[in-house]
Specification:
The structure holds two protein chains of two kinds. Chain A is built from five helices and twelve strands. Chain A is of the alpha+beta class. Chain A has two domains: about 1-105, Pseudouridine synthase I, catalytic domain, N-terminal subdomain (Alpha-Beta Plaits), CATH 3.30.70; about 110-240, no CATH class. The termini of chain A are far apart. Helix content of chain B is about 35%, strand content about 15%. In chain B, helix 14 links the parallel strand 16 (about 405-410) and strand 17 (about 450-460). The longest helix of chain B is centred in the C-terminal third of the chain and has 21 residues, at about 420-440. Chain A: This is Radical SAM-linked protein. Chain A: InterPro entries: DUF2344 (IPR018768).
């Protein structure tokens, strides 16, 4: 038995396929690829498969994750090749890593996500949104109303934004935002609050969301940092509290 | 993958289910449009989830795309949200694969599976900017062709189609495509092309047939306007099913659809001559597929799709002679792969219960019986072989096996029906409950009890059945009968274990009008569409009052088609077609029905229906007993 973590991309028209349908898509792809996945026990067995975080409909990504358990395999590369040979073009398995048998599910370890955000071609704002947003983000507090199970609640988004950076030429903003079981900041909430602060109307479908990667927390006692779930690049590390 | 979608991201994100419009599903076919001669848009005129569940389209889609010179794409009815957006923003309807406008295609094909989709056909044409009437079309428009069960009386929609293809699609499309290429090359006029089409067997070009009516509104004659086209169009039929194309790479949708599984068609046709059933007559004779061929198809399709379920498809699976062998094979192969097997249309007996206990969770699944009528007399009239004894014996064995949910299906409004037949529905349901209590002693019920659902639908007489002469009930009669059924059930001792469902009477009446309608209905359908009728098959969108208003405005009496008594020698709108069984046979069966006489099934004895002229299938088998 092997526990595997897969990293995949989601681009093109497939971005309109919702989270539950992507799960169903993978279940079928795994069967087509004849990967020896482990099934749960019981009368209606299901594949042992779990996704790190749902991606909203219409968003693209280069860093989605899912964990699966297989009974047997030739190698992680073989699993990757098998899956890629039956995948639709919009989804590509980028990496497969074998996990320690006792490691937690990706969903539990998720801490942050990096996004590149811009506006869709037909929905460009009629003002210099980058300049306005720089100003907005420099505030001490960034209050927003967030829908929770117990109704609307005011939150401060400031500590949930780990980093941000704008590209004037491309008219994009890159954001490293909180995404964990404790607190999650969605790009649409941030942009909604920003637009409201300058008295503009915001439509969620205007925002072009691209998730670059999903980050986990690494706590080495003295140094806490976050890094993508699967990475070999030290530069991807982002140190928390200095 | 086609990255150039017809709809912008913003529009797609505002739609309820954008996945209906983006194409790019697993196994969908993309070709170089410049490298093909014929572009075919195949349409099921209902929402994506329904249309994608249809086997016929998957067969033709796969077959057409196996031709190098043809690219077949799919299109479905845009749901009401998309319909509104497309009209507001003036977006022409497009095919899913290329995302190109339908208007530029060579063919637009409709599979017409039920009468209540007729206004959706007009929606598709309208959104594609194709003239709704065949006579207004030019070479700038695709050839609009219809197929499927409703084309066996396509007269109510005759004005909207250039061509109807009568019968099974596997046989004549290649010939039609070759003719199309030839005519295009020779710069032939559209009408000359259609004239050539009309000479192909099974092809019906309605504009070339002139209909004369008698004073009483019935048909006096239907005659071809050219000497060189047939006066009767004979249905096309596949003579060698096991050698014919069958899709092992069906398109796999992203979203959940109605029939979300591999569908394995095991045979076509039915030996059982139930007199209300149209499919039973249209697909005669019964033709079985080779069992080894089916085994290969099943494994291939599962491998190519990754589906977790496979379903056997036919009108009456229990009549497939190699069923035990096929099911054994599937159980053996599927359990390793954790693939479920679903077996609809199985007769409940020891064999099927044994199989079902292996492939289903007994606690969750239910038994289905379709006695269709409440008394043996009524069942003899409709020639439904199932007896009360069959039902009680099947139930008994099933209760022993642990089942406790039973579904019973009946029809109301059958010819010669009396109150006794209606109250008989409650009696049967009650007897099933009694059977449960007698079979399963209290200490073995473990807190469970019997759970019966009885459902009735209203009988709609269909063309090419012995009941094509029958008078259909009015809405009031139907509702009165449903009420009596309900009272009959309520008066039973075990009534608290029986749930009763019945259908809408308004929709049944409309279906009745359209099913046996003539060309005078074309203008009614057109006008109803213009007044906003669409998705009539969906209760929440069906506008009965608008339809009735439209009949009145058009001066057409809907009851002419439903409640009128028809004489034995009346010329029906569909007599222009030969569906394989003769009118003499159907009339004989109608008389047998009225006399309460049962008939043999095809394996017991040949009734001389006419289908033997195809020289295949059960007509060539030796009889088991006479």
């Amino acid at each position: 038995m092997h526990k595997l973590r897969l990293k995949f991309s989601k681009t093109g028209p497939i971005k309109f396929v919702g989270h539950l349908d992507i799960m169903r898509y993978f279940q079928k792809a795994i069967r087509r690829a004849e990967v020896d996945i482990k099934y749960s026990e019981g009368f209606s067995p299901h594949q042992l498969l779990s996704f790190a975080q749902p991606l909203s409909v219409g968003a693209t990504s280069d860093g989605e994750y899912l964990d699966m358990t297989v009974n047997s395999m030739v190698s992680t590369t073989d699993v990757m090749n098998r899956l890629n040979s039956v995948m639709n073009e919009g989804i590509t398995i980028l990496a497969v890593e074998e996990l320690d048998e006792h490691s937690a599910k990706a969903m539990t370890d998720t801490y942050a996500a990096k996004y590149v955000l811009s506006f869709r071609p037909n929905s460009k704002p009629d003002f210099d949104w980058i300049a306005e947003m720089e100003k907005y983000l420099s505030g001490d507090k960034l209050p927003a109303m967030k829908k929770t199970k117990s109704g609307m609640k005011e939150i401060d988004m400031k500590p949930m934004i780990f980093a941000h950076e704008f590209d004037e030429k491309e008219q994009t903003g890159t954001f490293l935002l909180s995404m964990s079981s404790l607190e999650t900041l969605k790009p649409t909430l941030l942009f909604g609050a920003f637009f409201e602060s300058i008295g503009k109307e915001f439509s969620t479908s205007s925002l072009n969301i691209h998730r670059v990667d999903i980050y986990k927390l690494v706590d080495n006692g003295d140094r806490r940092y976050i890094e993508p779930f699967i990475t070999n690049d030290m530069n991807e590390r982002f140190y928390l509290n200095g | 993958m086609n990255y150039n979608l017809a709809l912008s991201d913003e529009i797609l994100l505002d739609l309820e289910k954008p996945e209906r419009y983006i194409g790019n599903e697993v196994n969908s076919v993309t070709k170089d449009k410049n490298a093909v001669d014929i572009r075919f848009a195949m349409c099921f005129p209902d929402v994506y989830e329904i249309g994608m569940s249809h086997l016929g389209i998957q067969i033709l889609y796969g077959m057409f795309n196996s031709y190098d010179d043809v690219w077949c794409e799919r299109v479905y009815s845009p749901w009401v949200d998309a319909d509104k957006t497309f009209r507001e923003k003036d977006i022409p309807l497009f095919a899913l694969e290329s995302q190109d406008p339908i208007k530029g295609f060579d063919f637009l094909g409709f599979t017409i599976q039920y009468e209540m989709c007729y206004t959706n056909i007009l929606q598709i044409l309208d959104l594609s900017k194709i003239p709704l009437l065949s006579k207004d079309r030019t070479w700038d428009d695709p050839i609009v062709i219809g197929g499927g069960p409703c084309t066996y009386n396509a007269e109510p929609i005759a004005d909207f189609f250039d061509i109807f293809y009568i019968g099974e699609g596997e046989t004549k499309y290649r010939e039609l495509f070759d003719l199309y290429k030839k005519c295009k090359k020779e710069n032939m006029s559209r009408i000359d092309f259609l004239h050539e089409c009309a000479k192909i067997s099974g092809i019906y070009v309605p504009a070339f047939y002139d209909v004369q009516y008698k004073e009483d509104g019935t048909i006096a004659s239907m005659k071809p306007i050219y000497d060189d086209i047939p006066s009767v169009i004979k249905k096309e039929m596949c003579l060698a099913l096991s050698e014919t194309f069958y899709p092992t790479k069906p398109v796999v949708p992203y979203i959940k659809i109605t029939q979300d599984r591999v569908v394995l068609e095991i045979m076509r046709g039915c030996i059982r001559g139930c007199r209300f059933c149209q499919a039973g007559q249209l697909y005669k004779p019964l033709r079985e597929k080779d069992v080894n061929h089916l085994k290969e198809l099943a494994l291939e399709a599962l491998k190519n799709t990754g589906y977790e379920e496979i379903s056997l498809s036919s009108l009456s699976s229990s009549d497939y002679s190699k069923l035990p062998e096929l099911i054994d094979f599937l159980i053996k192969n599927c359990s390793e792969k954790k693939v479920n097997i679903s077996l609809p249309s199985l007769r409940i007996d020891a064999f099927s219960l044994d199989v079902m206990s292996k492939v289903q969770d007994v606690k969750k699944s239910s038994l289905t019986f379709a006695p269709e009528a409440g008394t043996q007399r009524m069942r003899n009239v409709i020639n439904k072989g199932l007896t009360e004894e069959d039902i009680l014996r099947g139930s008994h064995e099933a209760f022993l096996g642990g089942w406790n949910k039973v579904k019973l299906y009946f029809m109301l409004g059958l010819p010669t029906e009396t109150d006794e037949d209606i109250y008989g529905i409650g009696d049967i349901a009650n007897k099933v409950a009694v059977e449960y209590f007698e079979t399963v002693p209290k200490e073995k019920r473990n807190g469970r009890t019997i759970d019966i659902v009885a459902s009735t639908s209203f009988f709609v007489p269909k063309p090419f059945t012995p009941f094509q002469w029958a008078r259909m009930n009015t809405k009031e009669e139907f509702l009165d009968k449903a009420n009596k059924t309900r009272k009959g059930i309520m008066s039973q001792l075990n009534q608290k274990h029986i749930k009763y469902n019945w259908h809408e009477a308004d929709a049944s009446m409309m279906e009745g009008v359209l099913a046996r309608g003539d060309r005078k209905l074309c203008k009614v359908i057109l006008k109803a569409y213009e007044k906003g009728c669409i998705f009539d098959a969906w209760g929440e969108y069906f506008k009965f009052d608008t339809w009735m208003e439209t009949f009145e405005e058009c001066g057409v009496d809907p009851f002419f088609y439903t409640t009128r008594e028809r004489k034995d020698d009346e010329i029906f709108p569909w007599d222009i077609l030969n569906c394989g069984v003769t009118k003499e046979f159907l009339l004989r069966e109608w008389k047998n029905a009225l006399a309460g006489n049962k008939s043999f099934n095809c394996r017991q004895s040949c009734l001389g229906c006419g289908a033997a002229s195809y020289g295949v299938g059960v007509c060539k088998e030796g009889r088991t007993n006479a």
